[in-house]
Amino acid sequence: MRILVQKYGGTSVAGLDRMKQVEARVKKGLAEGFKVVVVLSAMSGETNRLLGLARQWSANPDLSECDALVTTGEQVSVTLFAMLLKDAGIKCRSVMGFQIPILTNNNYGRARILEIDNAKLLDMLNEFDVLVVAGFQGVSCHGRLTTLGRGGSDTTGVALAAALSADVCEIYTDVKGVYTTDPNMCSTARKLDRISYDEMLEFSSMGAKVLQIRSVEFAKKYNVPVRVRSTFCDDPGTLVTQEDELMEDVLVSGIAYDKDQCRITVFNVMDCPGVAAAIFSPISDAGILVDMIVQNTSRDGRTDMTFTVSRTNLEKTLEILSRDNKDIGAVEVQHDLNVCKVSVIGVGMRNHSGVASMMFTCLRNENINILMISTSEIKITCLIEEKYLELAVRALHDAFGLDRAGGDRVC
Amino acid sequence: MRILVQKYGGTSVAGLDRMKQVEARVKKGLAEGFKVVVVLSAMSGETNRLLGLARQWSANPDLSECDALVTTGEQVSVTLFAMLLKDAGIKCRSVMGFQIPILTNNNYGRARILEIDNAKLLDMLNEFDVLVVAGFQGVSCHGRLTTLGRGGSDTTGVALAAALSADVCEIYTDVKGVYTTDPNMCSTARKLDRISYDEMLEFSSMGAKVLQIRSVEFAKKYNVPVRVRSTFCDDPGTLVTQEDELMEDVLVSGIAYDKDQCRITVFNVMDCPGVAAAIFSPISDAGILVDMIVQNTSRDGRTDMTFTVSRTNLEKTLEILSRDNKDIGAVEVQHDLNVCKVSVIGVGMRNHSGVASMMFTCLRNENINILMISTSEIKITCLIEEKYLELAVRALHDAFGLDRAGGDRVC
């Protein structure tokens, strides 16, 4: 049995006209001899509408009830679409997460998939040509409804593709694929034909909305080929797949950025063992993700500690720091909201040096001051003033030759 | 464990203000030492909104998908209400039909409950003080979502009360209880304090919206005391319960009517064995309920057959009759839409004669012609011209002394 998984996002299921386009894609899959598993999100705006209702009803909506509430969004999408397909004579049925079941932990609001038993799915695929599966949702081992977090339908699609050993998981969205950088910011941005899982992970972690980061982790773990493409045109999109030699020949695949950043500096902390733990443990315990961290060289047994958190976490972080002031001996905390991150990403970096210096040189040429630097195996990130973001992205895109097919070859 | 089941209809859950009133009732139940099982309908208009969506998407919406679609209405009600109760510090959770499970057959759109295993419910009641259960929905033995038909939340409430041996099942609605007749038609209509299951069945079968007929059958079968009352006032409402001597002392409990009727006459059918079956079997096979049937005395080996069906079924019935004309030898079919049924109902009839003649005399006194008559053990029904309906209801209500507490005593 050859199986094709197709996931469609909220803009693709926003109304009857668009669903007709989705129907045509499903039929194409059938005509090519596939059984098709269609994963749908809620219609655009529906999840927000439901969460808005929850906030009207409760000052602090219970997470487990919120999950059971918002799963109705996908339930409406899949039942309506199944009706449409049945009218077209296609043997199909809707499938909710709990009917498979997609078993998750009970971390409501951002549950993780524990297990998908494919036996029942394969039974259904023997009986039906198309399964229309509600994305984003699962069920805990106690039978409570759960959701996989924003963008979780991507993960549903990839997880089902993995469980069913599908030929490919197609992620349909309103963009043509993965770009070398944000086309809204840089007019010469170019769609990539292929990208490695690791590069895609870095793009996703920088806030690129094209794929939920967990779906990429899943795809990498189970080696599921993922094709990101547009519902509304025939472009083959971008294939997210295993790294190969061709990819490594390209020094840099793209430029990513993240504006949801703020910088916090704790001055004059005692420079002794355990001080970093004393600062960051309570922040981490509060569920706040600390991103870049820099510690200055110590003077007189004292040092400064600088780090970034997302802007929504600023207030909470400052509150924790002021509470724990005494333990770390800090005398002053400052923060800066006018910052952003810009990164160059590429698996080619693994084998080739010189990318960092090219990046720093490029920024210097534009007179952009670097506030912080962090590196990973395939990414170099600089924190800069937010007002220089667009300039930096364009200059880096240009400097690494990303407007040209194939990008800049190894120096 | 003392358990109270409370079912609230669509008007009771229509918005936050009203749900606050429901919250107050739930708290009252808790204060009296009960564990409370709250059964909710979808918010007013929500089921119709969802069915409207289905009709937009499909010319002939698939019934199984429709069921999975409309169950989201109750899911939204129960999750929002559970949030509200949790904010008030009450230990509670939402429960969907499939989570209990409420096992039904797969007759989508009007499924029947097959089984409710109370073990899981009792477990939940040990952990939580209040369960907020989605009404109207169940799950088939194949795991597909089903609904119990319009008004099915009443049945959910009564079935849960039966499964849990609850003290009482309270059905909250927007009227004070069960009346001797429709108060909108007869200003002297009086609320009944008690009514027997059989009488309630007759009222419900006449289209009285106060309780779904299947819920009354369920209540009778499992002897569940049901109290019909208003969400919006403190009146104790009407208790639907087992028949007792006091009830039998009352000759007539109420006057019911049904405007959704039309009369069909098949003239000149051959008067021979099997002709009734030849006429009614294909109608029944088409799922159409035939109500009153009268066969005239035969003349010259031919007779006329008259019966009533609901108005929505008229067209279909006429089509069937014209198709099967030859088998029954009928030469002419006539129909009349300007008719309605009026009934007097009372368990007192079982032991006392004279009710029929009182009814006929009353109608004659008002110059109302009787078109057809049918009787059951506790009900006498006359088909009359629709224009006389209001006059007939008022005259009968008066003739049987229903405006006076206790009604007319046995003659």
Automatic annotation (TrEMBL), chains A, B:
Pathway: Amino-acid biosynthesis; L-lysine biosynthesis via DAP pathway; (S)-tetrahydrodipicolinate from L-aspartate: step 1/4; Amino-acid biosynthesis; L-threonine biosynthesis; L-threonine from L-aspartate: step 1/5; Amino-acid biosynthesis; L-methionine biosynthesis via de novo pathway; L-homoserine from L-aspartate: step 1/3. Its EC number is 2.7.2.4. PROSITE patterns: ACT (PS51671), ASPARTOKINASE (PS00324). Residues 264-342, 344-411 form the ACT domain. ATP binds at K7, Y8, G9, G10, T173, D174, Y179, K209, V210. GO terms for biological process: homoserine biosynthetic process; lysine biosynthetic process via diaminopimelate; threonine biosynthetic process. It catalyses: L-aspartate + ATP = 4-phospho-L-aspartate + ADP. It is an enzyme of class 2 (transferase). One of its GO terms (cellular component) is cytosol. Keywords: Amino-acid biosynthesis, ATP-binding, Kinase, Lysine biosynthesis, Nucleotide-binding, Transferase. InterPro entries: AceGlu_kinase-like_sf, ACT-like_dom_sf, ACT_Aspartokinase, ACT_dom, AKii-LysC-BS, Asp/Glu/Uridylate_kinase, Asp_kin_monofn, Asp_kinase. It comes from the Bacteria. One of its GO terms (molecular function) is aspartate kinase activity. CDD domains: AAK_AKii-LysC-BS (cd04261), ACT_AK-LysC-DapG-like_2 (cd04923), ACT_AKii-LysC-BS-like_1 (cd04913). Substrate binds at T47, E74. Belongs to the aspartokinase family. This is Aspartokinase. It comes from Desulfolutivibrio sulfodismutans.
